[in-house]
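Sequence in, structure out.
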Amino acid sequence: MSEQAHAHEEQERNQGRSKADWWLLVAGFVIFSALGFWITPVILYASKPQPVQFSHKLHLEQVDEGCKSCHYFREDGSFSGIPSIKKCMECHGDEPLGDDPREKALIPYIKEGKPIPWLVYSRQPDCVFFSHAAHVASAGMDCAECHGDHGKTDGLRPYEYNRISGYSRDIWGRNILGIGDPPDRMKMDDCADCHRENGVHDSCFVCHK
């Protein structure tokens, strides 16, 4: 075989290997990207069960003022937040708790007079100031806009949190890329976008005190 033919054959082999290498690279990228999207949340997030399984649906059927029956504004305008065990006992105190496991779970907290250590899905970092009065009482926003329609839920999903930051996964969002809008996530740019759309100041000091 002449040197020219040998060089041509070698060139063809190199081109063949080059194409195969590119295909392997693409396949490897796709496979490891898919594995990354699946494995990263497993590694990054941990979960805890709520201390008591609470049915918003059941309670909404039995109260008169809807969400405001438990999540209300005080006379000074401050927001009550998550109800205390004393608030629960306003309804449950007249009758002994039944055999429902959800009701039985309240007994230790009632006997010891301790608050239920609820894990708050929407808890923001300590540097963030948020006024429910400004958004709900003044701006007329519906709770479901940020928190989702909890009134239809018959139980509480596990609380997921970032192992590194300690923040709730609901802040970043269920999507590992952080893509989405409230109530699927509660990020700073969502608040800023809402403020701009409604002509409200979006300077840093508005939310960061």
